[in-house]
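quick one, 455 residues, struct below
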Amino acid sequence: MNTIILKSLGGAETVTGSKHLLKTSELNILIDCGLFQGIKSLREQNWQPLNLDIAETDIVILTHAHLDHCGYIPLLVKNGFKGKIYMTEPTKELAKLILLDSAKLQEEDAEKANFHHYTKHHPAKPLYTLRDAEKSFKQFFTVSENTSVQLSDNIYCRFKTCGHIIGACSVEIKCFEKIIIFSGDIGRADSAILPPPDFFTKADYIVMESTYGDRLHNPSNLSAKLEYWINQTVKNRGNIIIPSFAVGRAQELIYILYQLKEQKKIPNDLPIVMDSPMAASATDIMIEYSQYTTVNKEKWLRIIEQININREYANTSEFVQDKRSKIIIAGSGMMTGGRVLEYLKHDIGNSRNTVLIVGFQAEGTRGRALLNQSHELKIHGQYYPVKANVVELTGLSAHADQSELMEWIRKYKNPPKQIMLVHGESSAQEALRVKIQTDLKIPVKILIKDEEFIF
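---
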């Protein structure tokens, strides 16, 4: 009997930790293998055993390289996974970068916990090490977009680019005559540097992200808003701090800022600092795979010539103390860690400065606290009053909004039998569920962690 069972091990009723297991009589396939991020109760799930028989898991399919989709891979391999991990070529390079960084942070966190004795475990150990991450790379297997890959006698998969970041794809799995689509993270139709999402047109079932299922991105001109806040802050002799995800968002930002300088809409001599070794390396990968973007390699090289790219932490204090107005692009994007915290400690208490929030801010992060108009931020054990301007610019989001998600569904020539929503907070999922069922008359289920759904 060709029963197909879907079970979400993460990314169900939350935007993080994406892991969706497809169990069949021929193969058990894990679509994405991400770490939980955000509030402590989520992060603690990374340490709990998976509700999964790793020895009986045959294949991993990776939609893209963000940590919440790939960050658990070294631990899966460490715990016995032996199969191939399928992904696109740019995703392979980005995933290596992100997993090595994650492993380094895991090792550093364990070392600090042991040194400062703030751990329940003696000694504290990393979730995985650099060696674990490197070992998992041996199982990476790249595939081309729009090419059918036979996984077993009756199971095939196919990738289609979906925007979001370079190499990101939706995945079609044909399984015993049923077609199941995993959307991955769907990008914007009007990205400054990526082509619009491609799409499938036939599906029996869709497992779909819902990050912004309850909101529309502001259609107002993003460049004009950036121009306004940059010039206003420079006029006040302040700094513009843009907490940014290193992969995707940082590259889109430097492209838009380059355009604003070219058009003489912001001062040509205004320093732009990208203080993130990961963003620097991700930019190198973006240039290497420029054919996946809408910007040619020569233009990318011109853009980075005008940016102060800082890879060394030792130089950060010099940029922090520099009294000139400047634009700082630094990670992490949700302000949960990284070098952006050094700039925030110095600048968040001054009304001359502006913090531009350009991406999704998960529950429990400093970014969400700022959006909720918190009067102070706790950074490295101390509280800092929030007096800087805090401005949210949604036009730079790498996730489709509700209208774009609905349009993506409308591409299917025949409505699917059911849509399963994942990768969203409860309010977003419920709003999108009602919208789909009301407007498109398609049954929708919100997946619950570890609950099995039988096709």
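Residues 89-116 form the longest helix (28 residues).
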